[in-house]
């Protein structure tokens, strides 16, 4: 599918979409918590749908009401006879988090579970599971470290050491599985943990559901058995998404003005650091009540370390394109195994828009402040590349046509509708 972005100033109000990271974790927590979970502010992205489908296939009952999801789970699903659960195939779509978080949880069951997926996920590394899960008594068969992956548990929590440099998502999965199954305190030691704020989010969701995790300096995580009544009702409100709010805020900062609601300044999401980049670029930023007002001013280049918030690279590049001077963003190595190789995708697509990007080891340098030109660009089937080029296109000279624009469904299905609603000089994109 193609979308054309017609340049136009923006102004108005938008609400941030729900965070798929928050929602997927809530689904996993609901599955491992006996009783009822009521989730509100849930989203409708492909990654969230994948998580809901997975918990339903693993035995939770999911009821979608207009404004809330009611999920019921119980301990029996983990101990039901093998014969009742044959041919369990879980399709994670393109979600790295659903794959890496639900694999250790699926390892808690005592029968074969097959993980499959689509598109970009088929090329993303899963060899962590081949190495680590057998140490926890789970039998693993993968396709040379990639999907499809078949697991057979039950997983036994044990003190282990893992490498956290490739992705934090593997640790997230182990924390969920250990939280569910441990019968005595047990520790996970992690070396070189990346994307640390996502682990804060994992710990905060697990705590919300009554589990006990202690984080010692992102090096040792101690998980203790939960003491509670057998059945509970937990209410959880999905947080607004800072990762996608970043695109909207950058649209305001580069193409006019915007008032954004629906994000929490105290969230554990690391992508709230987009605020630092906006301040450093010279954009006008005003916080009032629970809203953020952002307005274009003369923008200048800035420096940013995105090692622990890699999803900010695409909106930061869109911002830096309009900042006079050379912006440097650290953490390029973290982009290799996302939905696309995002460093290359950003360099190649922004070049078509007349923005030079240099990749210098772990640092990306964006040469900003020139004329950004509308162009024929590709999303590389990556939602964040589609959104970055769309936002850059709002103030470009000429129309930007994005092929593979439907990639946004992975995290923000209403993205183009929301952008069209704040465009003042154009009736909308198509
Ligand atoms: O846990 C999560 O919700 C996520 C963790 C990050 O991945 P890595 O830990 O692989 O960097 C991030 O890029 C991804 O979009 C979502
Ligand atoms: C990398 C992403 O997600 P995931 O790893 O969960 O597929 C993303 O949303 O940018």
TrEMBL record:
One of its GO terms (cellular component) is cytoplasm. It is found in: Cytoplasm. The keyword Metal-binding does not apply. It catalyses: 3-phosphoshikimate + phosphoenolpyruvate = 5-O-(1-carboxyvinyl)-3-phosphoshikimate + phosphate. Its EC number is 2.5.1.19. The active site is at residue 311. This is 3-phosphoshikimate 1-carboxyvinyltransferase. It comes from Hanamia caeni.
């Amino acid at each position: 599918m193609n979308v054309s972005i017609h340049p136009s100033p923006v102004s108005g109000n938008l609400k941030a979409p729900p965070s798929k990271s928050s929602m997927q974790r809530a689904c996993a927590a609901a599955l491992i918590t006996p009783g009822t979970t009521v989730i509100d502010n849930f989203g409708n992205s492909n990654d969230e749908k994948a998580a809901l489908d997975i918990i339903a296939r693993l035995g939770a009952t999911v009821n979608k009401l207009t404004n809330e999801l009611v999920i019921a789970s119980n301990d029996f699903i983990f101990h039901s006879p093998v014969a009742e659960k044959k041919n369990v195939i879980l399709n994670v779509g393109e979600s790295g988090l659903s794959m890496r978080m639900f694999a250790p949880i699926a390892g808690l069951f005592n029968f074969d579970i097959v993980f499959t997926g689509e598109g970009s996920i088929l090329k993303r590394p899963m060899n962590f599971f081949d190495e680590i899960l057998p140490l926890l008594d789970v039998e693993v068969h993968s396709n040379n470290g990639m999907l499809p992956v078949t697991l057979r548990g039950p997983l036994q929590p044990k003190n282990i050491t893992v490498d956290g440099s490739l992705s934090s998502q593997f640790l997230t999965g182990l924390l969920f599985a250990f939280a569910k199954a441990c019968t005595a305190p047990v520790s996970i030691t992690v070396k070189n943990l990346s994307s640390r704020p996502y682990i804060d989010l994992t710990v905060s969701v697990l705590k919300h559901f009554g589990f006990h995790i202690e984080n010692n300096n992102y090096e040792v995580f101690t998980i203790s058995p939960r003491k509670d009544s057998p059945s509970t009702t937990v209410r959880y409100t999905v947080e607004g998404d800072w990762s996608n709010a970043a695109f909207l805020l950058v649209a305001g900062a580069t193409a006019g003005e915007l008032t954004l609601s629906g994000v929490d300044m105290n969230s554990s999401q690391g992508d709230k650091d987009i605020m630092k980049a906006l301040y450093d670029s010279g954009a006008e930023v005003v916080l009032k009540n629970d809203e953020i007002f952002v307005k274009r001013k003369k923008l200048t280049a800035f420096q940013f370390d995105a090692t622990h918030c890699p999803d900010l690279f695409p909106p930061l590049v869109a911002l830096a394109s309009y900042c006079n001077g050379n912006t440097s963003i650290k953490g390029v190595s973290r982009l290799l195994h996302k939905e696309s190789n995002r460093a290359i995708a950003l360099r190649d697509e922004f070049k078509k828009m007349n923005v030079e990007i240099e990749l210098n080891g772990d640092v990306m340098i964006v040469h900003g402040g020139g004329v950004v030109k509308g162009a024929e660009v590709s999303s590389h089937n990556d939602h964040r590349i589609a959104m970055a080029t769309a936002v850059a296109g709002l103030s470009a000279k000429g129309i930007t046509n994005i092929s593979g624009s439907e990639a946004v469904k992975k995290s923000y299905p209403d993205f183009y509708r929301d952008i069209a609603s704040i465009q003042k000089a154009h009736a909308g994109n198509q």
